[in-house]
Amino acid sequence: MLNTKNIFKFLLLVQILILFSVYYIEYVMNVYACKLCKYQRLPFFFNIALLFLLILNKNRFFYFLYVLVISVVINIGIAFYHVGIEREFFTENQICISKKNPKNEKDLLNQLINNQKNGCKEVKFKLFKLSLSELNLITNVVFLLICGHIIRHEKKQKN
What we know:
This protein has helices spanning 4-28, 35-39, 42-56, 61-86, 105-114, 132-158, and strands spanning 126-127, 130-131. The protein is mainly alpha-helical. A hairpin with a 2-residue loop joins strand 1 (126-127) and strand 2.
């Protein structure tokens, strides 16, 4: 009934689509991404590698699955912190505030043209009235629930 390999393939596809979407929004639509936005992408790359391993290698299944769960939990933590900064539950710290000063007139002009803000508080792009960080938080909570369901199902199958 529950084909774990197909679920992992679906999760892999979703992770790749999410990464493609955020890079499209940043580079094609020229929407500024703060440092925390970029940090939230790192677990996705790691998750893609883990999902490939889970699809191809059944020997260390639970090991890779638990590492995937830890990666998703880390991404939930980063997304929660970012949403907290956007909603002003938390104050911005040095991660968000960039000390990057333009080196010359061309860099200054590029910053002004792109209207780049150095902090994480200002949301430049929303989808369904949610920031990308909020969508990332929701998506990763769903990923965590799916992983929990898979763990429960596989342990039941093992016994």
